[in-house]
Structures are given as structure tokens and as C-alpha cells.
Write a structure and sequence with these properties.
- The chain is 52% helix and 11% strand.
- It folds into three domains: 45 residues, Single alpha-helices involved in coiled-coils or other helix-helix interfaces; 213 residues, Rossmann fold, CATH 3.40.50.300; 36 residues, no CATH class.
- It is α/β, with parallel strands linked by helices.
- It starts with a helix and ends with a helix.
- The longest helix has 26 residues.
- Bound molecules: guanosine-5'-diphosphate.
- Guanosine-5'-diphosphate binds next to helix 4.
């Protein structure tokens, strides 16, 4: 594959080239990885700084419906929108497929939108590191907004918040005790809570849920990266496409404020540090899986099992050998 040529096409906004590039960064083949690293390096500093929006919610809250409606509202404003997915489940059993084009039919046909379903294999950490590169590719291709969708199961939110500029939690209207269903850690991560399905019979419940969460958000510790009034809870209806423009106005206000206050670049810098450390850790762990480290591990484990060495001593020996 000619990487220079691929990079040129991506910069020109060619969606097929973008798809191919994302497939390349998701590949686990060593030669592909080398090409992917070259490609990302070639594209560094090109394109534009998109607004990266992380979106999380449990299956059934209306993520697909919301992304379809929200994405079309954005393209209607002349913006180009990319949708990526970080899928925490390796099996996809029971859950809905993220970034499924058949559930976002209108948006997937929109020339100003790009939808990429989640890769099916590998563990979350691996996928997440590649998703970050996929986001960078979308920025190089000139997208204005990159939506990163995930299912709310705990761990994936952390990962998605580390690749996005703002994190949106999508909720459905519910009874009063549902509040406890959202883990505090996830609440603390959210910049905005959107209570979906605020329409028809569900409107009163949505109103209640929204004010419950607004109250809960006010009780959280104030974060330096938040202007007055954030994190914020709002109501939307993906089906009626209502509240979406308001939500976008608030997202932009938050981003603008953070840009001016230096928090936007600060957060991206912190994320770059985070992913650097993650890549180093991952690389070290990967090295443990290959010889001679693997053989050395096995030999030391045997000595530990036979009681000839304590686990602590053996570990120290292993690490010393590893560093030398
Ligand atoms: P996902 O699993 O989070 O992607 O959820 P879906 O987008 O597939 O939506 C799950 C169900 O909720 C579907 O039956 C949708 O029609 C319904 N739904 C989604 N958004 C709304 C909404 O704004 N209002 C109402 N009343 N139903 C909605």
C-alpha cells in the first residue's frame, strides 16, 4: 500500500480511503502496524481540530436513534460528521451493534457523514488505542465533529472519555430509584447528561429524571474545566428531533469556554500523555509474551511453584533481567 497516496486521499476527504486507513490501524499484523504508524505521522498536523464528542448509554436508551437525528442536525448546519464506535464486548452477545449503519440509514447515506462500525475482535484496551488513531484520521479527513459511541458498562466510558473533548451520557426516563443505577464515577465523567425520549407519554417521566440528575450533578465537586452551569442535564427526543440544536449550542459553548480558558488544549495534552503511557505499558506486556522473556517467566514460575524462590524475589529477578 502506498502510504503517501493514501494520506493524500484522506486529506482530500475521500471516505473510502478513510475506511481503508481505519482498517489499517485496526489490523494487528506487524507490517500493517508499521504502515499505520507512518500514516499517522504523515497526517499529523493536517486537517482540522474536530470537536470530539464521546457518547455513552446502555442498550435501548436510543443511541442509534439519537446519533442519526443529531448527526443529521449537524450536517444540516453544513458540518461534516464522523461516527466511530468503541465496543467493550468482544462477543456482542445480547447487546446492540454499535455504529450499525442499518440503524442509521439516513445518516449513512448523507454525503457529509461517515459511519464506522466497531471492530469485532480484540480486548477493550487494544481497540481503544486504535480508536484514538481512527479519530485522528477523521480529523485529517476534515470532519468537524467526531462522535465516539460506546455502551455504558463502566470501563468503556473511561476509555472513550480519554479520546474525547466532551463526554455525553444518554439516559432514558425512569423511576426515581434509577438514579443509583448510574455509577458515581460515570456521572463525574459526564459533561452533559441528555435524557432522551422526552416525548409523548414519557415526557413527564423525562422531566422528573432530568431534574433529578440536574440536582445530582450540582452535588458533584466543581471541576476546574467547567464553566458555570456545567455539567448540565437536558432533555431531548431523538424521535422528534427536539432539543438537539439546544444540546449542540451548549456543547459548543462548553468547548468555546474551555478553548479560551486553555482547558481544551490542556485536556488533549493530558490525553496524549495518557496514551503514550498506555502504549509503553502495552508494549512491555507484549514483550513478556515473546521469547526470551516468556521462557524466562516460565522457568521462574516453576522455581516459585517448587518453593525454591519466593514470588517477590523471582519477580525482582525477572524485572532486572528485563531491564538489562
Ligand atoms: P440503542 O440501543 O441505545 O442504540 O437504542 P436505539 O436507538 O436502538 O433505540 C431503542 C428504542 O428506543 C427504539 O425502539 C427506539 O425507537 C426508541 N427510541 C429512541 N429514541 C427515542 C425517543 O426519542 N423517543 C421515544 N419515544 N423512543 C425512542
Amino acid at each position: 500500500m502506498n502510504i503517501e497516496e493514501l494520506a493524500g486521499k484522506i486529506i482530500a476527504g475521500d471516505r473510502r480511503a478513510l475506511s481503508r486507513a481505519i482498517t489499517l490501524v485496526e489490523s494487528r499484523r506487524a507490517d500493517h502496524r508499521d504502515q499505520a504508524v507512518t500514516l499517522i505521522e504523515t497526517l499529523r498536523g493536517t486537517g482540522r481540530q474536530a470537536v470530539r464528542v464521546g457518547l455513552s448509554g446502555t442498550p435501548g436508551v436510543g443511541k442509534s436513534t439519537f446519533i442519526e437525528a443529531f448527526g443529521r442536525m449537524l450536517t444540516g448546519q453544513g458540518l461534516r460528521v464522523a461516527v466511530l464506535a468503541v465496543d467493550p464486548s468482544s462477543t456482542r452477545s445480547g447487546g446492540s451493534i454499535l455504529g450499525d449503519k442499518t440503524r442509521m440509514t439516513l445518516l449513512s447515506r448523507d454525503p457529509n457523514a461517515f459511519i464506522r462500525p466497531s471492530p469485532s475482535q480484540s480486548h477493550l484496551g487494544g481497540i481503544a488505542r486504535r480508536s484514538r488513531e481512527a479519530v485522528a484520521l477523521c480529523e485529517a479527513a476534515g470532519f468537524d465533529v467526531v462522535l465516539v459511541e460506546t455502551v455504558g458498562v463502566g470501563q468503556s466510558e473511561t476509555v472513550v472519555s480519554e479520546i474525547s473533548d466532551l463526554f455525553v451520557l444518554l439516559l432514558a426516563p425512569a423511576g426515581g430509584d434509577e438514579l443509583q443505577g448510574v455509577k458515581r464515577g460515570i456521572m463525574e465523567m459526564a459533561d452533559m447528561i441528555l435524557v432522551n425520549k422526552a416525548d409523548g407519554d414519557l415526557k413527564p417521566a423525562a422531566t422528573r429524571t432530568c431534574s433529578d440528575y440536574a440536582g445530582a450533578l450540582r452535588l458533584l465537586r466543581k471541576r476546574p474545566q467547567d464553566p458555570e452551569g456545567f455539567p448540565k442535564a437536558m432533555m431531548v427526543s431523538a424521535v422528534e428531533a427536539s432539543g438537539l440544536t439546544d444540546a449542540w449550542v451548549e456543547m459548543q459553548a462548553l468547548v468555546d469556554w474551555r478553548r479560551e480558558a486553555g482547558h481544551f488544549d490542556g485536556a488533549r495534552a493530558a490525553q496524549a500523555r495518557y496514551w503514550f503511557a498506555e502504549d509503553v505499558k502495552h508494549g512491555l506486556l507484549a514483550q513478556l509474551e515473546t521469547d526470551p522473556a516468556r521462557a524466562r517467566m516460565a522457568a521462574l514460575a516453576e522455581e516459585v511453584a517448587q518453593g525454591r524462590k519466593t514470588p517477590t524475589l523471582a519477580a525482582e529477578e525477572m524485572l532486572r533481567g528485563f531491564h538489562d
